[in-house]
């Protein structure tokens, strides 16, 4: 830590107060998976469904965050780690603010995702593995990135010449190459309902 002589200033409204006002818990839904697996697509649909049910939500999406907060970071292992660390800290603030926070980052390294889990309280981090075969992601190639990676125009692309470490104990696995988008959305919502997050 570079900063010294800093003292936490407590507020008089707590996370629990905010959750009570909102009428639901706050939590991070951490979508992880290969590029093109469907993290953004799924988070947008899940958010829409939650919003319709009166739940306060916010999405932190990889590309959007790299436009602003993290525009100084690249894709080296070190920068990916710092990217995820900052997102983790932002997500933690949003949970403190009482919001159901959905994040859509490849977040390829187990250690980095684990770091975020440790930042948050128990039951405040739901790891959702958006599972899809590399072949199918490459076939979809919604941003044309796999094509560029195969052509050598992008170096260190996850799944091609950079690793993706599968979650070992995720709270949820959605298989977007086997189930429809609607089925995946239902699976996530059902998990939240059954585990008491929505009341
Ligand atoms: N069952 C499904 N679930 C989710 N997405 C699907 C499904 N079937 C097809 N798709 C398509 O797969 C693509 C997924 O792209 P999306 O941008 O959501 O991926 P991503 O995981 O956010 O990738 P990136 O890490 O590059 O941002 C979309 O074009 C979506 O329409
Ligand atoms: Mg995305």
TrEMBL record:
EC number(s) recorded for this UniProt protein: 2.7.1.25
Per UniProt, where does ATP bind? 33-40
Positions of transmembrane segments: none
Q: Which InterPro entries match?
A: APS, APS_kinase_dom, P-loop_NTPase
Q: Name its pathway.
A: Sulfur metabolism; hydrogen sulfide biosynthesis; sulfite from sulfate: step 2/3
Q: Where is the active site?
A: 107 (phosphoserine intermediate)
CDD domains in the record: APSK
Q: Provide the GO MF annotations for this entry.
A: adenylylsulfate kinase activity
Query: Matching Pfam families, A to Z?
Result: APS_kinase
Q: Which reaction does it catalyse?
A: adenosine 5'-phosphosulfate + ATP = 3'-phosphoadenylyl sulfate + ADP + H(+)
Keyword list, A-Z: ATP-binding, Kinase, Nucleotide-binding, Phosphoprotein, Transferase
Residue span, APS kinase domain:
25-175
Q: What class of enzyme is it?
A: transferase
Role description: Catalyzes the synthesis of activated sulfate.
> Mind telling me which PANTHER family this protein's record contains?
BIFUNCTIONAL 3'-PHOSPHOADENOSINE 5'-PHOSPHOSULFATE SYNTHASE, PAPS SYNTHETASE, ISOFORM D
The entry sums up its family as follows:
Belongs to the APS kinase family.
Question: What protein name applies here?
Answer: Adenylyl-sulfate kinase
